[in-house]
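Troubleshooting: if your tokenizer reports a length mismatch, compare your output against this known-good record of 136 residues.
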Amino acid sequence: MTRLPPTSIGVRRHRSSRIWHAIDLVPEGGEQSLVCGSRRALGNISRSKGDTEKAIRHFEIALEIASPFDWHDLLFWIHYELAGLFRGEGRFDDANAHIERAKSHTVDSAYNLGHAMELKARVWYHQSRREGTARG
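Known-good structure output:
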């Protein structure tokens, strides 16, 4: 049996299908963390497929689920992933806004704060390159 590499389209579709199936199995009123994590995963899958709007929607739903519970680690990573998505799209103001939101959820985590600062530096770098190209 031939196994597909983890980055192949067939594997991503299969993973996306499994995640949707997992969401359907969650009973109403329970396991919000599973649904939240699934939406985050769907956001990353949509992003990898180049479907930015769908990715944003999945991430926004994950934020809506995680916010009332103050799941700081999940909230950090969802905002971090949105910031990376917006950076890739050249939407630097949106990227910076999500980095600031991510930083507000670091809750004494030097590891997460370090990731946020590194991403902020990458945004500044790409933004300065784009502005330099526009001037030159």
